[in-house]
Specification:
231 residues; alpha/beta; Rossmann fold; Arc Repressor Mutant, subunit A; 5 strands; 48% helix; 12% strand; elongated
Length: 231
């Protein structure tokens, strides 16, 4: 990760457990975090079983979890730690990751995905975002999820759209978001104004109880909120 630092002031530290099977990578990350007063590495390890044990023992605020481990995998760790009210939030670290792996990781409880090639300040930004209760996936990767999410919707046995009171226009907006359109792209595609798109998205977020595009996409895949990709 390219070094990029931003000194911050905070009275409460984010307690971080780092799991990666490369000792030098962990050492480098630990040094970088020393520059941030609101974050602290409270533990580290390189294997899946130890990651589960330390997470339960230390109860960190944030688990930085490598997708690939010599002992097990990040996905195995997520499955072991899958608890509805778990206090620890997880960000997956990956050299590369496929669409279906992103979806699976989030379904297993991960709150974010960060590629190892990213600048370090992007990881810090992701941690802060996730700690506020949001999800973090690079905007480009969200667009890349469209095909997988539509397949999940197609195979879903729960078509309960009406539960959220979605209008046909709102379902079009959701389909456009899943297809990777920006607000301006949606406006041009549907021949409406940018502000109208924003108004629709606000109404959609309020109806289904989400706060960003990723949460919307995940909810749409679970509840089949569109009629299919936007043509």
């Amino acid at each position: 990760m390219r070094e990029a630092f931003q000194e911050v002031e905070s009275t409460q530290k984010v307690r971080i457990l780092l799991v990666d099977d490369h000792t030098m990578f962990r050492a480098g990350i630990r040094v970088l975090f020393e520059r941030y007063r609101d974050m602290q590495i409270v533990g580290e390890c390189g294997g899946g079983e130890e990651a589960v044990r330390l997470t339960r023992e230390l109860k960190p605020d944030m688990l930085l979890l490598d997708l690939l481990l010599k002992e097990g995998s990040g996905m195995d760790v997520l499955r072991e730690l899958l608890e509805p009210e778990a206090p620890t939030k997880t960000i997956m670290l990956a050299a590369c990751i496929e669409r279906n792996q992103i979806v699976e990781a989030i379904q297993l409880g991960a709150r974010g995905i960060v590629l190892k090639e990213s600048a370090f300040d992007l990881l810090v930004k992701a941690i802060r975002c996730v700690m506020t209760g949001q999800y973090w996936v690079d905007r480009g990767r969200i667009s890349d999820l469209a095909e997988t999410l539509f397949r999940v919707m197609r195979d879903s046995a729960s078509p309960a759209r009406s539960a959220f009171g979605m209008t046909p226009r709102e379902r079009q907006i959701v389909a456009a978001v899943l297809s990777g359109y920006t607000n301006r792209g949606i406006a041009q595609k549907l021949s409406i104004s940018d502000q109208t798109v924003k108004n629709h998205l606000t109404a959609i977020y309020n109806k289904i109880g989400v706060s960003n595009r990723l949460e919307l996409a995940l909810c749409a895949s679970k509840h089949n909120l569109t009629d299919g990709p936007l043509a």
